[in-house]
Amino acid sequence: MRDPLWTPGDTVVERFLRPDGSIGQHHPLRVIADDGTVLLGWLPADTPIVGSRLADGRLFREAPLEERFRVPRVRVADFWRDTSTLRRIADDEWSSVWWFFDADGHFLNWYVNLEVPLGRTRSGPDRIDGILDVAVEPGGRWQWKDEDEAEEAVLAGRITAGQLERLRAEGERIGALADAGRFPFDGTWTDFRPDPDWPAPGLPDGLL
């Protein structure tokens, strides 16, 4: 196992890259733990992020499905809204697991963001959003999310058919863990509370 790259309290920036290598969204995370392979990070509600919109000004979901991955995107200043998330990002896994908490700190559910892992830089982990996701409710009931978008993303060249096949396999692995009530869906970290002395993570200057 490698030495930890980050220590608790550090800020790292999770970057979501596009297939052409350009950088889309930036999400700052407060480091909770890192063993050099698996990062646990905290993104509280209302934290500034770099988001993205379609170049014509529309939000992604405002466009018809056939346009969502074909219209160019631009980066915009934004905020992480409504919920706070604890994220487990493993360097060698094609997913990251997000614990969602409401404004009072109560655990809501898990969301598994299926992703193509690209390793980590000194500033944080790099990933490609795999479009397809898995939502897991307390108790382990799970379902696929955004299957139609994932198929359209392949047609548009956003991800490859091979990547989607690997992402589906990862989703099935995650679903089996949820069915069995195994980690990370065994209640671990559902009572998490951030250190009250830590400020919200911030973005470095000059990203826009």
Automatic annotation (TrEMBL):
Where do the TM regions start and end? none
Q: Which Gene3D superfamilies match?
A: FomD-like (2.40.380.10)
Hydrolase recorded as keyword: yes
Which Pfam families does the record associate with it? Answer: DUF402
UniProt xrefs under SUPFAM superfamilies: FomD-like
Say yes or no: keyword Iron-sulfur present.
no
Q: Where is the DUF402 domain?
A: 61-182
User: Where do the coiled-coil regions begin and end?
Assistant: none
Could you list this entry's UniProt keywords, alphabetically sorted.
Hydrolase
State the Gene Ontology terms under molecular function: hydrolase activity
Q: Per its UniProt entry, which superkingdom is the organism in? A: Bacteria
User: What's this protein's name?
Assistant: DUF402 domain-containing protein
Taxonomic source organism: Amycolatopsis decaplanina DSM 44594
The beginning of the lineage is:
Bacteria, Bacillati, Actinomycetota, Actinomycetes, Pseudonocardiales
